[in-house]
Specification:
The protein is mostly beta strands and 157 residues long. It is built from 2 helices and 10 strands; from the N terminus they run E-H-E-E-E-E-E-E-E-H-E-E. The longest helix has 9 residues. It holds the Pfam family DUF1203. This is DUF1203 domain-containing protein. InterPro entries: DUF1203 (IPR009593).
């Protein structure tokens, strides 16, 4: 069985954004305060508390621009938070929704056609192991099934 790890966005990316670096669209991240719960931070992979500051920004979880390099909105805590480290355990951000989109990408960062599927929360780990058991798949992205927002990346352990 393929061992998997859940990976948050790199700390170097988060630190740059907290310091005011532009997002994937060249804009400064928007700073706001939460109006409720359910704002998932893509660095600690936990939730931003009610009334806490957060950043909204465009993020592209790919090393370079190319046709399959999807860009979309994400949230980060408004202040630095520790990067998710319990990588072998499903992170808190994947516990609130009933399902997610899992999609496999090749070593060239292109979608492997036929791998994208809405996956029930309780089947995320099994589906990721299945996908990563194929040598042509380098990694898997987890996205919101409702809004297609990037959640995290799953790699082989």
């Amino acid at each position: 069985m393929t061992a998997i790890v859940f990976n948050a966005i790199p700390t170097t990316d988060a630190e740059a954004l907290w310091a005011g670096a532009p997002d994937a669209y060249g804009l400064r991240p928007e700073r706001r305060f939460t109006q409720g719960d359910g704002y998932p931070c893509r660095h600690c992979l936990g939730f931003i508390g009610v009334g806490e500051p957060y950043l909204t920004l465009a993020y592209r979880p790919f090393p370079s621009l190319q046709p399959y390099a999807e860009t979309g909105p994400i949230f980060l805590h408004g202040e630095p938070c520790p990067r998710y480290t319990a990588s072998e355990v499903m992170p808190p951000v994947l516990t609130q929704s009933p399902d997610f989109i899992l999609r496999g990408y090749g070593h060239d960062d292109r979608i492997i056609y036929g791998t994208g599927a809405v996956t029930l929360r309780e089947k995320v780990e099994d589906r990721a192991r299945e996908l990563l058991g194929k040598p042509e798949i380098a990694y898997v992205h987890v996205r919101s099934a409702r809004n297609n927002c990037y959640q995290c990346r799953i790699d082989r352990a």
